[in-house]
Design goal:
Blueprint (H helix, E strand, L loop, with lengths): L2 H4 E8 L3 H9 L1 H8 L13 E5 L9 E10 L3 E6 L16 E10 L2 E9 L6 H28 L1
Antiparallel strand pairs: 1-6, 2-3, 3-4, 4-5, 5-6
Helix pairs in contact: 2-3, 3-4
């Protein structure tokens, strides 16, 4: 495994208590608001799938599908998905998934949110670099989105 190509890592310091950041992550409806996916009435439960329509302009025709892996209150939320699975004509179900993990750490000024998406080295070579590139930029945007969401809620 080459960590430079296998994983995306981001972190942001959010000026909000860990409990508030956790609710924005672990409450599926709140997650959907800042992430851009319709998850009204959904829940994140370890071992169970969760899905909803993407609400981000230009991607509304896509279904966001994950399998929740771990839910450790106020510490860790993780799920598996097929990265950058944006072609509705392609069946990605036979491909390996990546693992997305959000970790929270309380700080004196708020909460440190760490995001790691790993497993890109297992993605088929013809999709790997584009999936890594697109998700890398996507996570940059999503870290800003959660920060803006928490500042306004």
């Amino acid at each position: 495994m080459n960590t430079a190509t296998d994983r995306i890592e981001r972190q942001i310091h959010i000026k909000a208590p860990r409990t508030k950041v956790w609710r924005a992550l672990a409450n599926a409806e709140s997650f959907g608001e800042w992430f851009g996916v319709a998850l009204k009435g959904k829940r994140f439960v370890a071992g169970e799938p969760c899905e909803g329509n993407i609400t981000y302009p230009g991607y509304e025709h896509l279904l966001w599908k994950v399998v929740v892996e771990r839910v450790e209150p106020e510490r860790l939320l993780s799920f598996r998905w097929h990265p950058y699975a944006v072609d509705p004509e392609v069946d990605y179900s036979h491909e390996p998934t990546t693992l997305v993990a959000f970790e929270l750490e309380e700080t004196a000024e708020g909460t440190l949110l760490r995001l790691v998406e790993s497993g890109f080295d297992q993605i088929p070579p013809h999709r790997r670099l584009e999936a890594f590139r697109m998700n890398s930029g996507g996570w940059d945007a999503q870290m800003k989105n959660i920060d803006v969401y928490l500042a306004s809620h």
